């Protein structure tokens, strides 16, 4: 598609609207019942057909019936059926078909049909009563709003066209621009939840040039060679003489100011919701630190808030593009890098992590928080080892400690035995000295006694030459019973 496709389309639509407006204004024909069919059957079929759809599928047949049927007795019923048939017009072609059908009936019955159908269209575009919505649950209210917007969207588009082609008028000789502006103002002013905002975006996408005097978005975004001649279609449309405009300049200026004021209010609400979402995220982070988890009700509330914020942000961005106004500055928080980010949708993040780290100056708010996460404590210092399942390891530690204690006891026992050996050696040396100084008589007397001692030694299994063999096992005898036996054997030498 060429770069002038959008301006070409706008130019074509303007020509069609201008031609149909001239036809509606100049050809206010009076109804003549001559040669017109008044058959009940055909009138019933016509009303049924227009109620089913006023779109392009029934366009030709409806225009043919309007020209051949009398219709005079069924004007009020036709006015109600037209509104119902408009709700099924989804495409631009269907919308224009409905405009031509209504214009054809308007030309035949300007005084009886037109006021009735305009009144019905105005009632269909009315804002819902606040009292009825206040009694509904939030989910039910959201569902009702979505259904209402879906029905009102095609009606608003048809009414916008009718106000440009002279069917809906503010006064004789004027367009219906103020009528459209009042309808939109009533829808948007009593709507704190911004449920009617999609209607405004739908309106601006198709009628921003005609009602606000601004060019379509695609026209201004295209790069243009400064040396090229200003002969493109969008420039031609922007410099239309006032006589060629379908809406008066005063209405265009007021309409534009109203939309800009509404965008400003939406921007303020966006900033408020942005701050609320960040505050909720901060609270979730603190709750996660305290309890180690996020409860389900808190998580659901956070996800719902994120979904609403993303929807509002998308609508605000669309309005910004259509009105050529900048988006508000959304403040960032220093704790964004710490966010636990409930939900797996990465689109829910409001700021990039790197930007958050750059603005916060670090990953942790303070040194105490850093130590909390980085200095890991040993659970064995705070939790019983039996709870941690470390019983087997403790037994090994106890065995090692027992072995170490046994080695220490053995060492002390060895030192004690060595001291006893030195004492016994000194006593033995004294005995040898006494024996050398004895007389031969003593030796003769002791000869018989030696035999007896030998018998006693044999009883204990000891001999004096066996002393080194008796003392040798002491350092390696850790058991007390055996040590006591050795001591008794040594004392027998005395």
Topology:
Blueprint: H1 5-26, H2 40-52, H3 59-68, H4 75-86, H5 92-108, H6 113-124, H7 130-134, H8 138-164, H9 177-189, H10 197-212, H11 217-221, H12 233-238, H13 249-291, H14 296-323, H15 353-360, H16 367-374, H17 391-436, H18 440-460, H19 467-471, H20 480-491
Summarize the structure.
The protein is mainly alpha-helical and 494 residues long.
Percent of sequence in beta strands = under 5%
Percent of residues in helices comes to 55-70%
- List the secondary-structure elements in sequence, H or E: HHHHHHHHHHHHHHHHHHHH
Instruction: Give the tally of β-strands.
Output: 0
- Overall form: rod-shaped
Description of the molecule:
The chain is mostly helical. It has three domains: 9-129 and 138-217, Serine Threonine Protein Phosphatase 5, Tetratricopeptide repeat; 264-381, no CATH class; 384-432 and 462-494. It contains 20 helices and no strands. It has helices at 5-26, 40-52, 59-68, 75-86, 92-108, 113-124, 130-134, 138-164, 177-189, 197-212, 217-221, 233-238, 249-291, 296-323, 353-360, 367-374, 391-436, 440-460, 467-471, 480-491. α3 (59-68) runs parallel beside α5 (92-108) and α9 (177-189) runs parallel beside α13. It is rod-shaped. It starts with a helix and ends with a helix. 22% of the residues are buried. Mean pLDDT is 77; it is low at 1-5, 217-231 and 334-361.
